[in-house]
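Record 1 of the preview.
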Amino acid sequence: MRRTYFRSLILAAVLCGTAGWLPAAQSARGLFDSKALQQNRFAVLAQPVGQRNWKLLVLEQIKQRPRCWTLRSDGLVDPTLNTFNFAGICSRYLDSNGYSLRSGGEDLGSRFRLSLRQSGNNLQLQALNPRQGAPIVVGRVTIPKRDRNGFVQIRLDPAWRLERRVYKGRTLSHVYFAHPDPVNRLLARAEQGSDSGFSRLGAPTAPMAPRRNQRVASNGQPIQLEVIPYRP
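->
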């Protein structure tokens, strides 16, 4: 009886110690799960702030009527939920408390920040990690025009989906921007597609072998030089 008791204590100590050795990514992966959502119930919007900045906003249509947002003829979106009491009809997700990144089944909210970046008339939803290189592009849109009262709807890139956070079988309100591939693969693709200075230079080429007794003129044509024999 005593031997069985001590054996149980040793086994428990080993299991506790092993749990402490688990990597943080594996712990985060096991803490939260996710489930699929109906994508047409959501709108991923960019709200103009000031002259150049943007704020990310996700709207959810819980009940069919009244509509939480409407598409305008100029391509912008009106957040019509501001015109009525939308409790129980619409949901808003305004910051990292309401949405985050998920990749390959791993919760990345503590490592990556979602941000909107504009270049010309193009607007991208990017996932940024200060310790990583190129940002991961989650969605994009061409801006029809800038109107302080009109939002721009972001279209997610292929394979990106909105999912709901689940904790121990319980569905939470938190929304994921989720991709099935692991984050390292997404980062590798982002690095390959980044427009760095080296990539603009193109692939290196071997230098041309010099030709004897020739000089290259300004038009690129070789000039034959006269060879004067040496006389001591």
